[in-house]
Amino acid sequence: MVEKHWAKKKERGSYWGIVIVLRVYQYGGHWLMRLILAPVITYFFLTGGDPRRASLDFLRRVHSFAAEQSPFAAEPGWRQSWYHFWQFGLHALAKIDAWVGKVSKNQVRNCGDTHFDDLEKQPQGGILIGSHLGNLEVARALASKKYTRRMNVLVFTQHAQSFNRALKDVNPKVDIDLIQVTDIDMGLTILLKERIEQGEFVVIVGDRTSVTQPGQTIEQDFLGKPAAFALGPWILASVLECPVYFLFCLKNPDDGHYDLYLNHACDQLKLPRKSRREALQPVLKAYSETLEKLAIRYPYQWFNFFDFWKKDSQ
């Protein structure tokens, strides 16, 4: 059976299901949630053939590519894959922790070449390109509490919108600036450009291909094999004519702190129409290599449960 494009897969979960989970968490805390999560995660692991295969494929690629630096003692199997699913469940709890104030700034380490303090001082905004590796919610939540600069987050799935709507229903004080989009059109671009000129920031992920134009991709090596990366985030960054940063936030398994990687990519990304792909290669290579290095260091925090190396079809 041919695996569907990630955006065409039916999302498993609903708004009310998320609300129930959040309420249980609110009144029962972490331990009760973990008790509930264990059978739920096991159910999704056993019934989710494609995600399970994608998990195993990814973990084994990490092990093979990293060689002597592999985070695994032997080739990963179903136990490691289940633990990968389990970490995804804990990732959802960490999102909630961040937005309800249970993660303090003392639990976050700056590991990148730029700090949010630096962004606060500059007059112009910028674009932050993240991924589904780690937990961007922690970085966004802490930044929203400490800094005045607004972060406009572009989301492409109803599930992300449902999660944040449910979170706001449970805790009305939560203030998340989400912009749900199906396509990056001229109207959206003008809106974002105005906001950046006012000193705001745009957050978008760069590790998933387009929902509406899956063929609009560019290949770049990742873990030893060419993978398709979306052109959209980079074209948007070029049109916005603003500084570009990479943003990753990952939980350190050794001490439980969060490692925040905010790295300056370029002051302005220029992509001439006739040589767009060639001009994009240096910054995309830097993004891919950063993603690769962090994926090897934090493999269980990779939350793309689909065949990442599958070629997109038009």
UniProtKB/TrEMBL annotation:
GO terms for cellular component: plasma membrane. One of its GO terms (biological process) is glycolipid biosynthetic process. Keywords: Acyltransferase, Cell inner membrane, Cell membrane, Membrane, Transferase, Transmembrane, Transmembrane helix. It comes from the Bacteria. The chain crosses the membrane at residues 31-49. InterPro entries: Ac_Trasf, LipA_acyltrans. GO terms for molecular function: acyltransferase activity. It is found in: Cell inner membrane. This is Acetyltransferase. It comes from Idiomarina rhizosphaerae.
